Amino acid sequence: MAKYLISFPSKAMVVPDEQMEAVGRDAHAVIEEAKTAGVYVFAGGIDESVPPVLVSADGKAVAGGYPWAPSLDGGFAVLELPSREEAVAWAARIAKACRCDQELRVFGFDPRA
Description:
- This protein is α+β, with helices and mostly antiparallel strands.
- It has a single domain (2-106), classed as Dimeric alpha+beta barrel (Alpha-Beta Plaits).
- It is 29% helix and 27% strand.
- The strands form two sheets. Strands 2-5-1-6 form a four-stranded antiparallel sheet, with helices on one face.
- A hairpin with a 5-residue loop joins β3 and β4.
- The two termini are 15 Å apart.
- InterPro entries: Dimeric_a/b-barrel.
- It comes from Roseateles violae.
- This is Transcription initiation protein.
């Protein structure tokens, strides 16, 4: 089984304020279904009120992330699934709940990790 990252950037979620409560309820319901199905690893969102720091090998930390990279924000879920087809199906369920498209990526397997 592989672990899949299902995610979206903050700008992708364009939902009217009056629908946000329903989005939260629906998103939590899908995560509960993933837990019940035994495929849930973890999920959450990037806390955008806390700015990133870039930490070098010598331990020096400077404000900001990589200057050339797009910012990392939004929400994500990591699920452990037996196939890409099942990952696409779960991503579709999350997309429906969140009212926005989801990006799907697979983590590489490292037997020593």
